Amino acid sequence: MALWGGRFEAGVAEVTQEFGASLPVDKHLYKQDIAGSKAHAKMLAAQGIISAEDEQAIAEGLTGIEQDIDAGNFTFDINDEDIHMSIESELTRRIGEAGKRLHTGRSRNDQVATDTRLGVKALARELMEANLELRHVLVDAAKKYDKVILPGYTHMQHAQPVLLSHHLLAYSWMFARDFTRLKAAFDAADNCPLGAAALAGTSYPLDRQMTAAELGFAGVIPNSLDAVSDRDFLLDLHYAGSVMAMHLSRLSEEIVLWSSSEFGFITLSDSYSTGSSIMPQKKNPDFAELIRGKSGRVYGNLVQLLVTMKGLPLAYNKDLQEDKEGALDTA
Ligand code: ARG
Questions:
Q1: pLDDT tens for residues 204-243?
Q2: Atom 10 of ligand 1, residue of closest alpha carbon
Q3: Which residues are catalytic?
């Protein structure tokens, strides 16, 4: 029986269960889910809402589950619907009644918002690191080719001579602005929804500041309805990703042009090119074309989430479950 099955007499049809499940996507958030649950249990114990023994059993049980998932020894069951129910039902199998008390003063609505925010913070951080690395590569290339002159273009017509280094550094400035946008997405995600429960908070005396601090959030979200229904932080990640994908696409377009026989400005290294069996003269810039091509998918993900959000009344609606796949894809 599902965790919410208490009021139902007939079982749920298999197709309803399968259609409603988000496990294939949100199982990637298991580390965030476990960290959130540990912080919540620690706070419940500190507030005297559950016993210290319960908290210890919960923490140990969750560590065991995390190790099993890490090692690939955990069987996910689609009947559990999502990562929250998978972990909670397994915890209850392992430690008994204390496992059920973990969810005191919490709902999957504030839980999933917390997991997603932690996930976005991790993704934004990874993207910022990759962005820095890319800018280092561009600056190094600019230094290496600081005597190379090429035609600068306007209207795709020869305009004035420019240095290749100047051209490459133009891209590094674009990516520097992308870094700022990624940081903004990180900051937008950096507040904790826990305590909002389903939508209207809870009468349990929770310490919201404590869970937020345990999880490394900068603060708590003041309004409970906003806490469970806000996905702006995901949109910010999508927008940062879209602009960065656009910059990457422009750079890729120049690599495609410059490596053509018409331009002949650059020769691609063999290790980054592909060939043709029937046209042996060819050296195709597949990787640049693919980067240019993937930008379309990234913009699509941004538009998908905007459209998903635009008609949603407050607070949680199941539509929100469609929020994670595109963000992972974009990142
Ligand atoms: N799997 C759900 C999601 O990703 C979790 C929240 C479910 N809450 C609910 N009231 N059905 O959005």
A1: 999 999 999 999 999 999 999 999 999 999 999 999 999 9
A2: 109
A3: 155, 276
Ligand 1 atom showing the smallest separation from residue 26 Cα: 4
Percentage of residues in the chain having pLDDT higher than 90 = 95
Is the C-beta atom of 321 inside 6 A of ligand 1? yes
Q: Are 8-104 and 106-330 equal in CATH topology?
A: no
Residue nearest to atom 3 of ligand 1 (CA): 321
| 4 has a pLDDT exceeding 80 | no
Task: Look up the CATH number of domain 106-330.
Answer: 1.20.200.10
Find residue 151's DSSP bridge partners: 161
1 pLDDT above the threshold of 70: no
- Reading the block at residue 127, the tokens are 């993207």
Q: Is the CB of 242 under 6 A from ligand 1?
A: no
Does pLDDT of 200 surpass 80?
yes
DSSP states of 266-301: ----GGG-B--SS-TT--B-HHHHHHHHHHHHHHHH
Domain ranges of the chain: 8-104, 106-330
**Which of 85, 89, 108 should be mutated for ligand 1, with most atoms under 8 A from CB?**
108
Sign (positive/negative) of CA torsion 39, 120, 316, 193? positive
What CATH number is given for 8-104 in this structure?
A: 1.10.275.10
